[in-house]
UniProtKB/TrEMBL annotation:
GO (cellular component) term, any one: cytoplasm
Protein name listed in UniProt: 7-methyl-GTP pyrophosphatase
Catalytic activity: N(7)-methyl-GTP + H2O = N(7)-methyl-GMP + diphosphate + H(+)
UniProt organism field: Aureimonas glaciei
Keyword rRNA-binding (UniProt): no
Amino acid sequence: MTKGIILASGSAYRRDILRKAGVDFTVEASTLDERALEAPLQQSGASPEDVASVLAEAKAVDVSARHPGFLVIGADQTMSLGDTVFHKPVDKEGARRTLLALSGKTHRLNSAVVLVRDGVVLWRHVGIAELTMRDLDPGFIGRYLAAVKERAYSSVGAYQIEAEGIQLMERVDGDIFTIIGLPLLPLLKELRALGEIDG
């Protein structure tokens, strides 16, 4: 057993998932500039899955450096439509453009999780979910954004599938934990294998 488990993420969704699963952990979000780390990866042609994995690792290693002996969970998620990687919209117009781009198409959520202890990567996993949006009428998009307000800016796709965002979907292939941003079942399996949680 290590000294404990740290989640290196500021995501309230990831904290909630892990707490509800009964995992005992503390939180310390990494302060790394993710966009600065991501830019050279995209320029080098890294896949959206690889970008998510590298960012998850970088965050975990960053927090691990301050907490010797602790097991650190790093996580990151990218959303891709073909070769295009999306980021969280910053305003209503950005959210509208995202939804128009995704309308009638299948996009991917690439959710990476990494376990690090003392700066060493012990395990990594990328869960992938594919979501197909129905053809969205621009008027409906406007009404949807008016209803969800600022919540549209808290996720990369401008939707929360566990709330009103489910109305945007025609088909979902993948588990809810991967969609929310933490592939929980593979993570729990590895935490049991490492003796970090009861199994």
